[in-house]
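Hi team,

Below is the intake form for Kojibiose phosphorylase from Dictyobacter kobayashii. Please confirm the fields before the structure is written into the shared record.

FORM ID: S-0412
PROTEIN: Kojibiose phosphorylase
ORGANISM: Dictyobacter kobayashii
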Amino acid sequence: MGNLWQVNEDSFSTNLKQIQSQETVFTIGNGYFCTRGTFEEGYPHETPATLLFGVFDSVPVSKEELANAPDWIGIQLFVNNERFRLDKGKLLAYTRSLNLQNGVLTRTVHWESPAGIRVRINSERFASLADEHLGLIRYSVTVDESPKDLPVAISLRANFNAARGNYDVMHWETTDQGHSSDLLWLQSETRKTNVTLVQTMSFNADTTAFQKEFVDGDIEPSIRLVGSLNPQESVTTEKTVVMCTSRDSDDPLKSALAHHQKILNTAAEETAGNAHNVFIFDYQLQKQDEAWAHFWQQADILIEGDDKAQVGVRYNLYQLRINASDDDSRYSIAAKGMTGFGYRGHVFHDTEVFMLPFFTYELPHIARNLLLYRYHLLPAARKKAASNGYAGAQYPWESTLNGEETTPPSIVHPETGEVIPVLNGFIELHITSSIAHATWEYWRVTADEKFMRDYGVEMLLSTALFWDSRAEKNEQQNDYTISNVIGPDEWHEHVNNNAHTNFMAKYNIKIALEALKWLQKTAPSKANALIEQLDLTDERIAHMQDVQEHLRIPQDPVTGLLEQFDGFFKLAKFDQEKYKGRKDSYQGILGVHEIQKYQLIKQADVLMLLTMLRQEFDYDTKKVNWDYYFPITDHDYGSSLTPALHAILGSELGHTEEAYQMFMKGTLVDLENLRGNTPEGIHAACAGAVWQATVFGFAGLRVTEEGYTTDPHLPHNWQRLSFQFKHKGEPVHIDLKP
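The structure came back. Fields below:
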């Protein structure tokens, strides 16, 4: 397969959906911003986007969305006044490659203009992991041949394009623009949320024969380099861009200009160059290599014997890294990260259930920030609980910066075209226990006692209080029930006693009470303050214990089979054989209401419970539930979230081949656009599930108070699986062979 650190594209397809899918695949980023893999020269109906971590603007219905910033990558090339673009002239050769090892995107094009001039274009770009405000492009043009060997006029125009929106919605307004002798800058402001963004640019050529011109303008300010090349001559240019927002600095213009000039001056000093025309790409690339090497030293997974899986796993790890800020706890990771407009940059339980384990085990400082995001939003979660008549903290199904519920009340169904109500924000509750579970797991793995003392216990108790008040006492059966919910399987609404919801609520209360006991022993004054703050009377704690002990779990006491919710077993069976070769989900085929009559599941529900709390269930319980639920789950067109997650339970039960198939559905979901929606952004939760499938599934890693164990179930073609993780701050190396 060649280089196992590269994602390659060896030919150019004019299919627009393929182009837009590849824009997502070839996204570069560094956690502060991500930029989709559009072409510097543009292309008709492309979907360019640069999204910045936590920079939102308001929209109707869905409250707010990540605001697509002015496009910074644009470089227009004119060859004897004919514009180079992939839909013009004649394409002779084309390759594109994303180097996962250092985050550099490279493209080489051999092109013939309508007038018969042949040129080679090579572009390289990256978002600096060493300097989160910095983006760089190196762009080279070589004239291969021209009619009569005449010189060829070359014009290169590097710009900021302010006419970019989220599809048809424009979020930025230019408020100022200008240039100095070295730098051009554009200042923009979001229309509703009033976030200021400043972008600065320098654009230099490796020859003084090209003249530089600054062109001011509110929509497309640019720097032009104009000259000529004889056949076999080249020009190489570098476009350096710095981005800074009012979330970073009170004066982002001053900060961005100073930072940019410092970058140029430092490079000039290091290379003995001229700060007014310095080339910095190689200098910054060295820092980029070092920053990514540090990441891969900690997070890489080595797979021998399966090249496709190796590249796929590394690609998913790359995506997890570029979509998470290294030091900002004001925002989290969205369902599509910052790679596209899908889900508008909203944060779901995708982060805590699917992605956060990777960070907990590999980059705990980022995991801490992701949990602090939830801690900061406790006041909003308490407000949501109170507005629904409950105590404690109820987290929203979708959230952005202020923690309010941002789930739209209705949407147009993407497959059926129906306008359907979206009930998730009202009755899909399990995100609250997912956050509690992630908090507990973070503490269990990292032993970060300061976090637990100052933040974690409060989160656990606040969420437990919600479940305590949400559960309803059934006097006849002397138990508690939770009615009218949506479980993880979102194809069934208004259900009672969803097994996942109830068991996770029970577990939430259990760990909260354990955390309180720990706090009372280790920081009694803090515990007393928290007890007073949350009004945790002896009666309330006794009630919580009663709910925890008697919350109804619909489970056969003999076989261990869990009923997904009350009445699920009475639903009609569905003959899936009739729909072989389908290209839609079962909900898309049957409709939103009809599917609720059948035992068909969108995504792991009971099986996700058995995976998340695998230590709570024995082998026989896992087996009987796998045998029942796995066959009735829509693994292909239901949810992208859980195929890879199924690999954990499947591996443990010895279903290694099925586990591998599920793992690969997750691994390749974006690289091969398996679900047809990669143009809207990567499946970030799936990336996290791929890591979990590899480490918890095939390696069988289990971490306990005493240490760790592995129980490997490697796919038949894997000759080696090697990785490392951190346990209580200490690195642990795992190296497994059949």
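SUMMARY LINE: The CA atoms of residues 410 and 421 lie 4 Å apart.

Thanks, M.
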